[in-house]
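Sanity check

After download, print the first record. It should look like this:
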Amino acid sequence: SKAHPAALVKEKYGISNWELFKACFSREWLLMKRNSFVYVFKTAQITIMSLITMTVFLRTTMHHKTVEDGQKYYGVLFFSLINVMFNGMAELAMTVLRLPIFYKQRDFLFYPAWAYALPVWVLRVPLSFVESAIWTILTYYTVGYAPAASRFFLQWLAFFCIHQMALGLFRFLGAAGRTMVVANNGGIF
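Expected structure tokens:
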């Protein structure tokens, strides 16, 4: 044929995977800066809730000999897990609001789906790290858990993983629900 070889499209997307990631990462960073109030508010909220937990369950040495003593530990753990998990519910609303743009750009073959999901996850890792650190640092020793540092870091890791799971869960519920009413009903249960 007489056509120039550079004139023919040979890939599905016009740029490399790395360039796709960088473009979506910079866009997600911009959206995160625009919604910074939400992230600051959620961090302040988890700080205030950890201070409340710290004062409600204030026991520098908790006994662990009876079932009633164990119930106190279970109460603190359950309250902590629920707070850390539902701190990610703001992700649901932001996901639902971004869906029309996502579907439009996906249908026009601007970006693949992974190019949206990966930057969101990468940018939420430091947020999860900080929020789980705030909760663990403020509540672990004042509640009276085991004084070993290894258990402190294991609880920090557990809360980090729970927060990451919650962010992913609420993003999934927002994408599956597609409307605020359906997504919120799914998020409540």
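If your output differs, re-run the checksum step. Summary of this record's structure: Residues 14-188 form one domain.
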